[in-house]
Structures are given as C-alpha cells and as structure tokens.
Specification:
heterodimer, A: 126 residues, mainly alpha, 0% strand, B: 229 residues, alpha/beta, 6-stranded mixed sheet, two-stranded antiparallel ribbon, 9 helices, disordered N terminus
C-alpha cells in the first residue's frame, strides 16, 4: 500500500513535468518523417535523399488534415516550393508560395518577394 | 558490489531528471519573459546559428532540428532552408556579421516579428580513460524586430554518459569500452540529443498564436536560469 502511494506521487510529479515540455498526441501539425529526411539530405546530399525529402513534404501536406490543427505546418508549402524552384519548376513553385501565404498571412511579405524572383526565372525560361 | 551499482543507475538517472525539474529555483513564464506577452510576436525568423563548438558540421546538422519544435509551439516559422540560402547568397551565413545586422532589417526583408539567435555552445565528446560523455548545449534567444528587446533566452543542455555500463577491468574491458564509444557516437546521436536539448529549452517559451494555450500559459513554472539568483 505504501509503495502504491509513492508511485502515485512520482507520477503526479513527473507527468506535468513531461507534458509541460512537449506537445502531445495528436500533434499540432503532422510532419510525417520530414525531420529525419531533412537531416539525411544534409548529412548525405544526393538525388536519393533529396527525393525522400520531397516525398516526406508532399506526404505531410497530404495528411495535414489528420493533425490537431488540420493545417499544413508553417513553412512546409514554402519549403516544397523552394525544392520545385531549384528543379526549375517555377510555375509549381509559385503555386506553393501562394498557398503558404494563404494559410499563413505572416509569410506574405517574404513570399511576395520570392514569387517576384520566381516569376523572373519563369519569364526567362520562356 | 558492482551489481548493486549497475542496478542503482536507472533510479539515479530518473531521480536526477526529476530533481533537475524541481529542486531548483522556479519562476513563471510571465515573470521571466514578460516581453513575449507584451509584444506577442507571431512570426519567428530562425537565423543560422553561431557554432562555438569544435565540430564543424554541428551548424548544418543542428539547423535541421529547429524548425519543427518552434512551429509546434505555435509560431509561424519562416522556412529555414530558404532563409539559410538567402544568408549564404548575402555572404553573411558563416560570419558573426549576421548577428550585427540591425533587427529592423529582418522585419523589412522578411516581415518577421522576431528573430531567433542560436549559439551552439557544446557539441562534443569528452574522452576519459574510464568514462566518456557526449554534450550538446544550445543557447537560444528571441529578439523583437520592432523594439530590439530581448524577449526570451534559454539554454538547453544534454549530457550523455557513454561509458556503456561497467565493462570490467583490464585491457579487454578498455577495448570493449572503445567499441561502445565508437558505436554510440554516430553523428545521428548528436542530432537526437540536440532535439532533446531543443525540447528542454522550447518548453520554457511562452507558446505562440497557433497554439491552444496562447496567452494562457503565463503561470507555467519553469526553471530559473538567471544568474545570481
């Protein structure tokens, strides 16, 4: 009995400490394996890791509805758009930058700047 | 005797985790970081960190760990890869010059409400004959681009004992030790522990506008890191 009480106290102390530090189940945003693929693409740069990163971003966008917020994570559309831009797909990139702005108005100024540059690339390629 | 010591380890680790959370001075988020509640920044521009560690790769690796936890605590976080590349193009990525750029410049260019400065204080191994340990220590600071006030500052440190238990004495023991250490210190480990360090420090940050607890977490207790108290 005494042991039982002690265990309860530990849980009572430990649980808030644990929850205070981290976001818990279901997460505010759904990142899929974005973090690890981003790290892998930096650690081992190459087509394969880049493709994995792109896929994880696309997956995170696809499954955004399952997260607590239901939103695509901040920066995710922009990150994907930037990948497209580096692959020369500026029209697709611009579409992503616009979506970033729509979901997060905080990004408007930066995205407008980036869209302007992407449009230059787009008109050059025509 | 040895067996007792080994069995005694887990409770000690757990206990020290608990103690690190409660045996120290506590303050509320509102008392420690009133500026966050006054200015209520919505967006954070994460700048490339200054690497004060001995590991040249720490900076690029650490950069891959920051975007997610700050976003999860409710802030709009500017896309880190794009921001880094812009800094590289501007020639300020690898220098301390970046940290001297007037704050309002970041507001003008990105529309950011606040910037996040990071110093990687430690990202290394210390070898000793009997034990070795891995340390990741990150100091983070949020500064307003409007008032140039420091709104938040905290340090997260993780120290991992890599001794791999008691491998026994003698030469064989030392060799086993060396193997354990080599296995344990793959680069991925640093990033894993950097994530733990991030969790520790970001837990003290008042949450941002996209979090349900926004402007409701003033009373949350955190460990006071202000020196001299």
């Amino acid at each position: 009995m005494v042991r039982c009480h002690w265990a309860k106290e530990i849980v009572a102390i430990a649980a808030p400490l644990f929850f205070a530090g981290c976001t818990t189940q279901p997460s505010l945003y759904n990142y899929e394996d974005y973090s690890s693929s981003y790290y892998n693409s930096v650690k081992t740069p190459g087509d394969e890791t880049k493709l994995k990163l792109q896929q994880s971003m696309e997956k995170a966008i696809e499954t955004a509805g399952e997260s607590r917020s239901g939103r695509v994570p901040p920066g995710m559309y922009a990150n994907l758009g930037y990948l497209y831009l580096k692959q020369g797909e500026s029209a697709k990139a611009i579409e992503m930058f616009n979506r970033e702005k729509t979901v997060y108005p905080e990004a408007t100024q930066f995205m407008d700047r980036v869209i302007q540059k992407a449009e230059l690339v787009e008109s050059d390629s025509k | 005797m040895k067996r007792t010591v080994r069995h005694g380890l887990l409770p000690i680790v757990l206990l020290s985790l608990l103690l690190s959370g409660c045996a120290t001075n506590h303050v509320t988020k509102a008392d420690e970081f009133p500026g966050m509640y006054e200015e209520q920044p919505r967006s954070l521009l994460i700048l490339p960190p200054i690497n004060e560690s001995t590991d040249v790769e720490a900076k690029a690796y650490y950069m891959t760990t920051v975007e997610v936890p700050f976003a999860l605590s409710g802030y709009y976080v500017f896309p880190v890869e794009m921001v880094s590349d812009i800094m590289k193009q501007e020639g300020v990525y690898d220098t301390e010059v970046l940290y001297q750029v007037p704050h309002e410049k970041f507001r003008e260019y990105f529309g950011a409400d606040a910037v996040l400065y990071t110093r990687i204080k430690k990202w290394d191994l210390s070898y000793m004959v009997i034990a070795s340990s891995l340390t990741v220590s990150i100091e983070s600071e949020i500064v307003s681009t409007e008032s140039s006030q420091q709104l938040w500052k905290y340090t997260g440190t993780v120290v991992v004992d890599l001794s791999g238990g008691n491998a026994g004495g003698g030469v064989a023991g030392l060799i086993a030790q060396a193997i354990v250490t080599a296995v344990n210190t793959a680069a991925a480990d640093y990033v894993d522990y950097a994530r733990v360090a991030n969790t520790r420090l970001i837990g003290t940050l008042p949450v941002g506008p996209y979090h349900e607890m926004y402007m409701k977490d003033q009373g949350v207790q955190i460990v006071d890191q202000t020196p001299g108290e």
